Amino acid sequence: MPPQPAQPQLRLGRRYGAVAIGRKNYLFFGSDVGGETAAVLYTFTQTCQALGIEPWRYLRDVLGRLPSHPPERLAELLPDEWAGAQRAQVTASAAANPGAGPASPAG
Fold first, then answer.
1. Which of 11, 39, 93, 106 fits as disulfide partner to 83, beta carbons 3.0 to 4.6 Å?
2. What's the predicted TM-score (pTM) here?
3. Going by C-beta distance under 8 Å and a sequence separation of 6 or more, which residues neighbour residue 86?
4. Quick one: CA dihedral 54, 102, 78, 48, positive or negative?
5. C-beta separation of 82 from 88 below 8 A
6. DSSP assigned state of 18
7. pLDDT at residue number 20
8. Could you say which DSSP state residue 6 is in?
9. Residue 42: what pLDDT?
10. Distances in Å between the alpha carbon of 84 and those of 17, 53, 89, 105?
11. Residues 6+ apart with CB under 8 A from 107
């Protein structure tokens, strides 16, 4: 039986395995715009996954806030800032309601 790879190697393999599998499929988008769109969506979903965010929840929240959100504070809506704010909100809520069960921080 071959030696088992260390945990970090397994995580990297899972993360980059999707890229390797998709690489062949990405040749057939049909247009440059389709390829660019797929790259944006792939990057977005990988960023959300790395931050522990559920992508649709993030999009619903951010798109709902955009019309009234001050332009000078748009950085607050970036995935990493948003995830931190959601976690802080859950922590504050848990501190205010100690009898409540655990909640999902950002996804």
1. 106
2. 0.63
3. 53, 105, 106
4. negative
5. no
6. H
7. 62
8. P
9. 86
10. 28, 10, 9, 9
11. 48, 52, 53, 54, 57, 58
**Tokens 């931050």, located at residue:** 51
Residues contacting 93, CB < 8 A, separation 6+: 100, 103
Amino acid identity at 15: R
The tokens 């309601």 sit on which residue?
97
Of 19, 91, 87, 83, which Cα lies nearest the Cα of 49?
Answer: 83
Structure tokens belonging to residue 89: 């909100």
Length of the chain: 107
Q: What is the 3-state secondary structure (H, E, C) of 67-100?
A: HHCCHHHHHHHCHHHHHHHHHHHHHHHHHHCCCC
- CA torsion sign for 61, 41, 36, 77 is positive
Residue at 35: amino acid letter: G
